[in-house]
């Protein structure tokens, strides 16, 4: 048998080897009876009963997910309950039943119309279509007495293959037994992708209809990094994937071959990400994206809830630094209850520190109070805070003054607090150009290459049409990084990186050569980057960086680094 490769979007940089189990949750409904044969009252009652039963199931799944994955991930089930009880949708179902359809057909028809509407909206709203579909399929299954396919007790080594996986589906997957999953549809930020990252499961989404040609029981390698699904893999391929999966986890901090310490930390969004970060050997947290504490809920977390979240992160690492980024709302991170303005170019609009010093000043104050208190907790000395999307020295000063004035208020009230280590993200060209002016005012920089690449190259992140251009391996982006690190030299200011680039082990030597002190990434690649650090010699790395900085194209950068583009 010769191997063949299908391509999709890899969403976790992990590999898995296993056997395909096709998951097809729902077969088509049979043709409905003639309207005159439908007992309207009986069908309305069946719908009400099904709605109640579905709500009970959702409550139970919510609890299970909160336990196994995390409170924030479990919040998706609240959204499902809302859809289940949304009067616009339920009135639609009732109308369809009154129009002569049995309950399951009425549900199928009404929900499908809403699914289509959401899909047409695209973007994040489009991704909500998966939630609606999930609620629809659940109701149809309850109404047609369908058996729930049990994703939680699959044979060990299963690779789940499906048209799509809804949040309830992914929540059932047991990472101990499942070797990965692959779907026909889906994007990098779909719920399924986010769950895959939280559970550290190899996963590929968006393979397309070609995936239907892969048969149940086929042996496959899921390469969640390249997005390649290899069917009927050769023995060498399987061994390589197994070896990649079997990477050595180092729980101790690492240094280069010539003895220079490099901190290797994890990026987290929710507290559920702490477990994988510790398990994969992260030294600490290099980026806590606190806006995730504010998403998928009805109202913002209060000061105590935030305080507890920061303290829990600090307690998870034995002396490791935890860098908390203040709210970065706006851009591609909408928060429904904040009623953000409709902007033509949200990435160039009111985002990050701009909102914290403007319309979200109250939210910012609450967060600052929680952070100052957390800095005074038992492990608080390891807390660092940084401001997102800073582009002027005034913003940095204003942000810092906010910390100082809130600390004075807390002192006046006799509340224990400390000023934590203070830094900024360098993710705008303005911050990179002005890094020498910023450096004396901060303890550290953390370079956010996701935004830095987008703004340096004027290529929207996430827009596939310009993804070649917005690549962090573009010479202009590398020069912006170099300018930032060089500006901090001689100042008491360490420099880290927390964009996706930091987690690319093929670039570790270059980043050490450019002078980065810390690299922070999604937990899954921590072991590979730690291994790469130990193999790096800083003199060689510097020489490599100098050559790369002379390159005039991305292709030349890749050639020097012997990378495949
Ligand atoms: C970045 O921009 O590189 C970054 C780490 O921040 P985020 O991806 O959260 O915008
Ligand atoms: Mg950013």
TrEMBL record:
<keyword id="KW-0813">Transport</keyword>
<keyword id="KW-0598">Phosphotransferase system</keyword>
<dbReference type="InterPro" id="IPR008279">
    <property type="entry name" value="PEP-util_enz_mobile_dom"/>
</dbReference>
<dbReference type="InterPro" id="IPR036618">
    <property type="entry name" value="PtsI_HPr-bd_sf"/>
</dbReference>
<dbReference type="InterPro" id="IPR040442">
    <property type="entry name" value="Pyrv_kinase-like_dom_sf"/>
</dbReference>
<dbReference type="Pfam" id="PF05524">
    <property type="entry name" value="PEP-utilisers_N"/>
</dbReference>
<feature type="binding site">
    <location>
        <position position="427"/>
    </location>
    <ligand>
        <name>Mg(2+)</name>
    </ligand>
</feature>
<keyword id="KW-0963">Cytoplasm</keyword>
<keyword id="KW-0762">Sugar transport</keyword>
<dbReference type="InterPro" id="IPR008731">
    <property type="entry name" value="PTS_EIN"/>
</dbReference>
<dbReference type="InterPro" id="IPR000121">
    <property type="entry name" value="PEP_util_C"/>
</dbReference>
<dbReference type="GO" id="GO:0005737">
    <property type="term" value="C:cytoplasm"/>
</dbReference>
<dbReference type="GO" id="GO:0016301">
    <property type="term" value="F:kinase activity"/>
</dbReference>
<dbReference type="InterPro" id="IPR036637">
    <property type="entry name" value="Phosphohistidine_dom_sf"/>
</dbReference>
<keyword id="KW-0479">Metal-binding</keyword>
<feature type="binding site">
    <location>
        <position position="461"/>
    </location>
    <ligand>
        <name>phosphoenolpyruvate</name>
    </ligand>
</feature>
<feature type="domain" description="PEP-utilising enzyme mobile">
    <location>
        <begin position="154"/>
        <end position="227"/>
    </location>
</feature>
<dbReference type="Pfam" id="PF02896">
    <property type="entry name" value="PEP-utilizers_C"/>
</dbReference>
<dbReference type="InterPro" id="IPR006318">
    <property type="entry name" value="PTS_EI-like"/>
</dbReference>
<feature type="active site" description="Proton donor">
    <location>
        <position position="498"/>
    </location>
</feature>
<feature type="domain" description="Phosphotransferase system enzyme I N-terminal">
    <location>
        <begin position="8"/>
        <end position="128"/>
    </location>
</feature>
<feature type="binding site">
    <location>
        <begin position="450"/>
        <end position="451"/>
    </location>
    <ligand>
        <name>phosphoenolpyruvate</name>
    </ligand>
</feature>
<feature type="binding site">
    <location>
        <position position="325"/>
    </location>
    <ligand>
        <name>phosphoenolpyruvate</name>
    </ligand>
</feature>
<keyword id="KW-0670">Pyruvate</keyword>
<dbReference type="InterPro" id="IPR050499">
    <property type="entry name" value="PEP-utilizing_PTS_enzyme"/>
</dbReference>
<dbReference type="GO" id="GO:0046872">
    <property type="term" value="F:metal ion binding"/>
</dbReference>
<feature type="binding site">
    <location>
        <position position="289"/>
    </location>
    <ligand>
        <name>phosphoenolpyruvate</name>
    </ligand>
</feature>
<keyword id="KW-0808">Transferase</keyword>
<comment type="similarity">
    <text>Belongs to the PEP-utilizing enzyme family.</text>
</comment>
<dbReference type="InterPro" id="IPR023151">
    <property type="entry name" value="PEP_util_CS"/>
</dbReference>
<dbReference type="GO" id="GO:0009401">
    <property type="term" value="P:phosphoenolpyruvate-dependent sugar phosphotransferase system"/>
</dbReference>
<protein>
    <recommendedName>
        <fullName>Phosphoenolpyruvate-protein phosphotransferase</fullName>
        <ecNumber>2.7.3.9</ecNumber>
    </recommendedName>
</protein>
<dbReference type="InterPro" id="IPR024692">
    <property type="entry name" value="PTS_EI"/>
</dbReference>
<comment type="function">
    <text>General (non sugar-specific) component of the phosphoenolpyruvate-dependent sugar phosphotransferase system (sugar PTS). This major carbohydrate active-transport system catalyzes the phosphorylation of incoming sugar substrates concomitantly with their translocation across the cell membrane. Enzyme I transfers the phosphoryl group from phosphoenolpyruvate (PEP) to the phosphoryl carrier protein (HPr).</text>
</comment>
<feature type="binding site">
    <location>
        <position position="451"/>
    </location>
    <ligand>
        <name>Mg(2+)</name>
    </ligand>
</feature>
<dbReference type="InterPro" id="IPR015813">
    <property type="entry name" value="Pyrv/PenolPyrv_kinase-like_dom"/>
</dbReference>
<keyword id="KW-0418">Kinase</keyword>
<feature type="domain" description="PEP-utilising enzyme C-terminal">
    <location>
        <begin position="249"/>
        <end position="536"/>
    </location>
</feature>
<dbReference type="GO" id="GO:0008965">
    <property type="term" value="F:phosphoenolpyruvate-protein phosphotransferase activity"/>
</dbReference>
<dbReference type="Pfam" id="PF00391">
    <property type="entry name" value="PEP-utilizers"/>
</dbReference>
<keyword id="KW-0460">Magnesium</keyword>
<keyword id="KW-0175">Coiled coil</keyword>
């Amino acid at each position: 048998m010769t191997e063949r490769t299908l391509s999709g979007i890899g969403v976790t940089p992990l590999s898995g080897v296993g056997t395909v189990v096709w998951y097809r949750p729902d077969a088509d409904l049979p043709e409905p009876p003639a309207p005159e044969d439908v007992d309207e009252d009986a069908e309305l009652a069946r719908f009400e009963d099904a709605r109640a039963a579905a709500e009970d199931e959702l409550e139970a799944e919510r609890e299970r997910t909160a336990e196994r994955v995390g409170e924030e991930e479990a919040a998706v089930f609240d959204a499902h309950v809302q859809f289940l009880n949304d009067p616009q949708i339920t009135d639609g179902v009732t109308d369809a039943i009154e129009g002569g359809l049995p309950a399951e057909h009425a549900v199928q028809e009404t929900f499908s119309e809403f699914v289509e509407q959401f899909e047409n909206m695209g973007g994040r709203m489009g991704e909500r279509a998966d939630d609606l579909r999930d609620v629809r399929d659940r109701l149809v299954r309850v109404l047609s007495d369908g058996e729930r396919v049990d994703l939680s007790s699959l044979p060990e080594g299963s690779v789940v293959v499906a048209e799509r996986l809804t949040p309830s589906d992914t929540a059932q997957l047991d990472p101990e037994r499942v070797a990965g999953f692959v779907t026909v549809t889906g994007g990098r930020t779909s719920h399924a992708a986010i769950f895959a990252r939280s559970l550290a499961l190899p996963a590929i989404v968006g393979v397309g209809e070609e995936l239907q040609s892969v048969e149940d029981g086929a042996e496959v390698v899921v390469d969640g990094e390249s997005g390649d699904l290899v069917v009927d893999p050769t023995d060498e391929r399987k061994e390589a994937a197994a070896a990649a999966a079997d990477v050595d986890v180092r729980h101790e901090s690492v240094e280069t071959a010539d003895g220079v310490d490099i901190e290797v930390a994890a990026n987290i969004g929710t507290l559920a990400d702490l477990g994988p970060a510790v398990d994969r050997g992260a030294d600490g947290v290099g980026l806590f994206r606190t806006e995730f504490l504010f998403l998928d809920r009805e109202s913002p977390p209060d000061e105590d809830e935030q305080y507890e979240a920061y303290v829990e992160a600090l307690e998870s690492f034995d002396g490791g630094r935890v860098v908390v980024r203040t709210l970065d709302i706006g851009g591609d991170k909408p928060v429904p209850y904040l009623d953000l303005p409709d902007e033509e170019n949200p990435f160039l609009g009111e985002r990050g520190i701009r909102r914290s010093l403007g319309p979200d000043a109250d939210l910012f104050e609450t967060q600052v109070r929680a952070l100052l208190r957390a800095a005074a907790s038992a492990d608080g000395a390891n807390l660092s805070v940084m401001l997102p999307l800073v582009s002027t020295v005034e913003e940095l000063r204003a942000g810092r003054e906010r910390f100082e004035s809130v600390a004075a208020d807390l002192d006046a009230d006799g509340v224990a607090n400390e000023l934590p280590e203070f830094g900024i993200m360098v993710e705008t060209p303005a911050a990179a150009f002005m890094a020498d002016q910023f450096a004396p005012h901060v303890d550290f920089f953390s370079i956010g290459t996701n935004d830095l690449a987008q703004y340096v190259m004027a290529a929207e992140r996430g827009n596939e049409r310009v993804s070649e251009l917005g690549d962090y391996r573009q010479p202009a982006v590398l020069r912006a990084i170099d300018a930032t690190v060089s500006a901090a030299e001689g100042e008491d200011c360490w420099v880290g990186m927390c964009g996706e680039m930091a987690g690319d082990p093929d670039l570790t030597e270059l980043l050490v050569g450019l002078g980065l002190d810390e690299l922070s990434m999604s937990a899954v690649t921590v072991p590979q980057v730690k291994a790469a650090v130990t193999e790096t010699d800083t003199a060689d790395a510097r020489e490599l960086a100098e050559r790369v900085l002379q390159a005039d194209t991305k292709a030349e950068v890749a050639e020097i680094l012997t990378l495949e583009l």
